[in-house]
Amino acid sequence: MLKALLLVQLLLAVAAARAESAVSEQALKAVLLYKLPLFVYSAGSDKRSHTSICTLGDAPLGNAADRLPDTLADGRRVNFQAIPGTGAIGDCEFVFIGRSEATRLDFLLRNLNGRRIVTISDIDGFARAGGMVEFSLRRDGSGVLILINRKAAQRQGIEFNAQLLRLSRIVE
Questions:
Q1: Going by C-beta distance under 8 Å and a sequence separation of 6 or more, which residues neighbour residue 159?
Q2: Distance of CA 42 to CAs 35, 60, 106, 111, Å?
Q3: Which residues of 111-150 are buried (b: 16+ CB within 10 A; e: fewer)?
Q4: Distance CA 115, CA 149 (A)
Q5: Which helix (H) or strand (E) holds 112?
Q6: Between residues 69 and 95, which one has the greater pLDDT?
Q7: What Å distances lie between residue 119 and 16, 19, 70, 83, 126, CA to CA?
Q8: What is the longest distance spanned by two Cα atoms in the chain?
Q9: Would you give the DSSP letter of residue 71?
Q10: Residue 126's domain spans which residues?
């Protein structure tokens, strides 16, 4: 029931962002990134009291992440942090790879391989290149499409909630 309620919140946030032209693409992506941990399962992980979301490179989130609450609906505290490289991953569970890292994408994904970390980006072709979650602007400009590479996620012991999968486009 909680997952269904959270999904409704996510859908309302996306719909509100579409309806309001004042909401930027960065703000929408920040909200999607913030809500994503509620729809991800990691094999063998215990219920943690916090979630660490890291950004690598120039993230298009601007200061939108600064305006988000520091606690998810399930009670986990969210820690956003910028990291200089994959060597500084530490306890990051989610890593958003900025467009500035597009030329190093293959290297970064290989470096993150074998770690139970959800990789996210808005780099065109990210999911097809082996990333797990790609935020892609819809062609008609009506919002953000979520592309998910389930095979890449499953290789790392990551599963996505079925409700999120229904809202997303699955790529390989």
A1: 40, 41, 42, 43, 153
A2: 15, 26, 23, 19
A3: ebeeeebbbbbbbeebbebbbbbbbbeeeeeebbebbbbb
A4: 16
A5: helix 105-112
A6: 95
A7: 26, 28, 21, 14, 9
A8: 42
A9: B
A10: 2-170
Query: Chain centroid to CA 64: how far?
Result: 14
> Helix-strand-coil percent breakdown of the chain, rounded to 5?
40, 25, 40
Higher per-residue confidence, 143 vs 14: 143
The overall pTM is greater than 0.90: no
Rounded distance between C-alpha atoms, residue 113 and residue 90, angstroms: 15
Number of domains in the chain: 1
Q: What is the CATH number of the domain that holds 147?
A: 3.40.50
The length of the chain is 172
Beta-sheet strands, E only, within 17-170: 40-42, 50-56, 77-83, 94-97, 118-121, 133-137, 144-148, 158-160, 169-170
Write phi, then psi, for 162 (nearest 5 degrees).
-60, -35
How many C-beta atoms lie closer than 10 Å to residue 91's C-beta?
12
**More confident of the two residues 46 and 65:** 65
